[in-house]
Write a structure and sequence with these properties.
Blueprint lengths: L1 H8 L3 H20 L5 E4 L4 H22 L15 E5 L6 H14 L2 E5 L3 H11 L4 E3 L15 E3 L8 E3 L7 H10 L28 E2 L8 E2 L31 E2 L2 E4 L8 E7 L1 H4 L7 H11 L3 E8 L3 H11 L5 E6 L7 H11 L3 E3 L1 H11 L12 E3 L3 E4 L8 E4 L2 E3 L5 H18 L4 E2 L15 H14 L10
Parallel strand pairs: 1-2, 1-4, 2-3, 4-6, 10-19, 11-12, 11-13, 13-18
Antiparallel strand pairs: 5-6, 7-8, 9-10, 14-15, 16-17, 17-18
């Protein structure tokens, strides 16, 4: 079988591992269900194209094992019998439609064309056919992937079937490594800079692949497989801008900075959490917490709570759970070594009720950073909270900042590193509105010689309080 042979001849160890794991899922499904009870959801995109050829290879190996022919079967002797579902849409790109029908002809697909919405179409199909399991090209990072496993029953309210996800743990890089290694035809849009294809109304070429050519008025784009950061594959999808903080009705962006009149809006609040037994034991002085508080004050944020926690998953989860809904933003720092603490990420995941899932793109950053120390097919430090994680890229950072909804996880271990991460965060804020930037808090120190006269001192403090009603007065001896 040409797919299986191409992978065996490849020098890409990780691709081989991904392929073998995916084939195992395919063959497991074919052992659990008859051919009449399974179907493939195909939409002409890169992920479903990978899935189609994994199914072809998996079915070939499944039939070979059943026939005990020890590899005598040829591709032509094993027709592909798995029912293929295509949801045809008037808003699909013509290139997608053409590629889908050409693929069906080339590989002899038994294709059911459905012109209803996904849910209604499935209900009608499952009512008419004995389908119990559907192969899907879902990958972690897709909007629909949250909470799914390789075998996942359909969601409540949907017709009952088993979702089979052979490439759930594949990355963008893995998808293109497979297509190119096996020399598989794919939709022509990907050669024109499209990296994630939706409808004609919400999809454009990825600007990160644009080729600057002053001699031509028409923009040109490099192929999708040249996108260096797979986390940005959906950068060509139109999306509505939204602020990550909880407060409503902010003014528009001006000069790249979101500004708020602090006299007309309630103060935005942050919680600062440090994680580290070494801080609690007193073996290391906590310089990051106070520095982070000063930085937040410099952009007009109030710090409502600071805490230092043990290196314990439950402690982190409880603290994040306690403050994530009552504060606009949480900042967490701490952990051993140059990278984030696994305890911190696990605690954040537990607080949001999600699992830690492997992130191949983040693993690539770790491999570049720690080189030979990152061995094996999976780096446990590259596990991130599933479905809620956003990596914040900046050219000055060797590892992206990690944002989980309104929780920022900082990897800094000293003030110098914190300064660098904070500066990058503020630069990103000015370009994409990650935080709301307000007028900084002003701190004034006053001395008095009224300490021996308690009544006069109280009167002076009361007068200051009336003059600065929004201020806070603290006493220092």
């Amino acid at each position: 079988m040409e797919i299986d042979e191409a992978i065996r001849e490849s020098d890409d160890r990780r691709l081989k591992t991904k392929y073998n794991n995916a084939i195992y899922v395919v063959r497991r499904a074919l052992a659990l269900y008859s051919v009449e009870e399974v179907a493939l959801s195909f939409n002409g995109g890169k992920d479903s194209t990978v899935l189609l050829h994994l199914l072809r290879a998996g079915y070939f190996l499944h039939k070979r094992e059943q026939s005990h022919s020890n590899g005598v079967l040829t591709d032509h002797e094993v027709a592909f019998p798995i029912r293929t579902i295509y949801f045809e849409s008037p808003s699909a790109f013509p290139e997608i439609n053409s590629f889908t029908y050409e693929t069906a002809t080339t590989y002899g697909l038994q294709m059911d064309i459905i012109r209803l919405d996904f849910k209604s179409g499935l209900e009608a199909l499952l009512e008419a056919k004995p389908i119990r399991a559907i192969f899907l090209g879902v990958r972690i990072g897709d909007p629909t992937a949250v909470g799914q496993e390789q075998f996942s029953p359909s969601s409540p309210g949907w017709p009952p079937f088993m979702r089979v996800n052979p490439i759930l743990d594949w990355s963008y890089r893995d998808v293109w490594a497979f297509l190119l290694a096996c020399k598989i035809p794919y939709c022509s849009l990907y050669d024109r800079g499209y990296t994630s294809i939706g409808s004609i109304h919400d999809t454009v070429p990825n600007a990160l692949l644009c080729v600057n050519n002053s001699s031509s008025s028409k923009e040109k784009f490099r192929p999708a497989y040249l996108l260096s950061d797979g986390r940005l594959e959906r950068a060509g999808r139109a999306k509505k801008f939204s602020l990550p903080v909880c407060r409503p009705a902010y003014p528009a962006v001006s000069n790249g900075m979101i500004s708020v009149d602090s006299n007309k809006n309630s103060t935005l609040t942050a919680t600062v959490i440090g994680v580290g037994d070494e801080i609690l034991f007193g073996t290391v002085e906590d310089e990051l917490g106070p520095s982070l508080c000063r930085k937040l004050h410099s952009i007009g944020w109030s710090v409502s709570q600071t805490a230092v926690l043990r290196n314990d998953v439950d402690s982190v989860a409880e603290e994040v759970e306690r403050w994530k809904s009552t504060n606009d933003v949480l900042f967490i720092y701490g952990g051993v070594g140059p990278l984030h603490s696994d305890v911190t990420l696990a605690g954040v995941a537990k607080a949001f009720g999600v699992r830690l899932a492997p992130d191949e793109e983040f693993e690539e950053y770790l491999r570049h950073l720690i080189g030979d120390h990152c061995t094996g097919d999976r780096n446990e430090m590259a596990q991130l909270p599933e479905g809620i994680t956003e990596l914040l890229h900046h050219e000055k950072l060797s590892v992206p900042l990690i944002k989980c909804q309104n929780v920022f996880i900082l990897t800094a271990t000293n003030v110098t590193e914190l300064d660098k991460e904070w500066d990058c965060l503020i630069e990103l804020t000015r370009s994409s509105g990650l935080l709301v930037l307000m007028e900084p808090f002003l701190s004034k120190r006053m001395t008095t010689n009224l300490s021996d006269d308690q009544t006069r001192l109280e009167s002076a403090v009361e007068a200051l309080s009336k003059k600065f009603p929004a201020g806070q007065i603290s006493e220092a001896n």
